[in-house]
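G., the chain you wanted modeled:
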Amino acid sequence: MIDVPLSALEVAMVQSGTRAMDTLRDTTAFAQGLDRLDYHRIWYAEHHHSPAIGAFPPVVLIAHAAASTSTIRLGSGGVLAPNHAPLTLAEQFGTLAALHPDRIDLGVGRGPGTFDDATARALRRGAGPTTDAEYHDDVAAILSFLVDEVALGPMPEPWLLASSTAGAALAAELGLSIAVAHHIRPQNTQAVLERYRADFTPSRWCEQPRVLLCVETACAETEEEAAWHIGPMSVVKAGLLKGMSEIPFPTPEEAAAHPFTEDERQALAGFRAQQAIGTPESVVGRLAQLAGETGADELMLTTPVYDLRHRLRSYELIRQHCEATATRCTAQLDATACRPEPTSTWT
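Predicted structure as tokens:
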């Protein structure tokens, strides 16, 4: 049984044969669907110049989703600090938090959000890659501006995204909640968590270590159907293994016909084994296992499947199975509590 909140990461994949504006329409329907399913939060990722992922600013998607939903939390997963002036981010997210109190998260990351060097330089007005010290200063400045200059009232909830021990060390030093990118570098998860928890310093933002674990997830009625739905993302990942960043997001039919090499098949199988893909029972079991092994306080599911209907169905099946499992556990506990004590046979 999963006893931690469940959330979602929206990557806004632009599907083969569709337009970016179709993806935008789907992001709204996705947020509304998860709001109805009572998921805890949705985060939006920042990407640029990708044929597979829409270049939609998280702050804009958050604002639109907040106006289109009622209770679900919304945030960035993440905005990339090197691409933005710290004061600008503080103003944007401070305003969102004032407009939608207790619903806004500010998840900050470091990467460029693109594999294209020219795009990265354009985002940074010609500047090169950010150093560790510069990134540290940017994150600290964002937090300072939120408190000292923006100060509109309700604060966004700050998180630091991390997939390495360097990110874990910064989150620990600044006393921030950490979002661990298990869906990107699962091989680093344990080291990230150990470093974060060992070095954590309490702050005004977080009194004790707090971990969100992001997991790639695809759930369907059968294992075969789940594998079919995750096929397009497997093609994208195989391209990345070859150093190819310009990979469109294919249809499941196109993915089924893709000629994977044996090395790619083995690498993809190894990656999928560390995520949660399959039937409701196997997915929920795997998520519960990951929560137990990592001590995560929250699980964030990212489901990069082709069709919005199947994506929402994946989240629905997981929620239904969790609720059914919780009901069975409650019934079993009640039955145990009501069972009469056995009578001793000793005289």
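The beta strands are 6-10, 41-44, 73-76, 79-80, 104-109, 157-162, 177-180, 211-219, 276-278, 298-302.

Shout if anything looks off.
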